[in-house]
Write a structure and sequence with these properties.
By secondary structure, the protein is an alpha/beta fold. It has 8 helices and 12 strands. Strand 4, helix 4 and strand 5 form a beta-alpha-beta unit. The longest helix has 14 residues. The chain starts with a strand and ends with a strand. 28% of the residues are buried.
Amino acid sequence: MEITVLIAEDEENIRKLVASYLTREGYRVIQAKDGQEAVEYFEDLGDSVSLVVLDIMMPRMDGYEVCRKIRELSDVPVVMLTARDTEYDEINGFAYGADEYISKPFSPAILIARIKNLLRRSGQGQAEDYKMGNLEIRYQERMVLVDGKPIILTPREFDLLCYLVQNRNIALSREQILTRVWDADYDGDDRTVDTHIKCLRAKLKDAQVRIATVRKVGYKFEV
């Protein structure tokens, strides 16, 4: 299922930066340069929009008003961006129906992670079958194939691979991986991540993908 994200941001450099990260994740991106254009796009696209990213301070119509109009039509997830980091602005954003509130400057990787969480919570962007080159993941069957041949993974290795794939091209720290793939209360050595990555690399050595080491951070699944 194609996921469409509508971005409304009057600062072109920020809009294009966010769009590039979303496109890299495989999302379809619609860009609006002001609030009025965002509303017009949303009315035209209707239910095909999966999530909206709104800047608050925009010409013609601010993000609060855009969010209010969107809420009259849909319960689509909405992320609000603002250069003003005040409690009032955050509360106001939620009062208009926003689901997330992120202050500028922000990390694009964190924004993408928040977007993915919102999509999961709304029933979109859920784990699904994946194919890239000669690698295939059949999520419901919990099966991995390379060149059509099954690769035997442990349950933890499978979950780790799926998490990496769902966050492809994003650098993930060992702590992030432990929290998500193991559990939030895991208190063991984070070197267990390195051990599992080593095993995955060995088993996927013939796959046309790469689990890269990101120095001083962790790992990144590259396609």
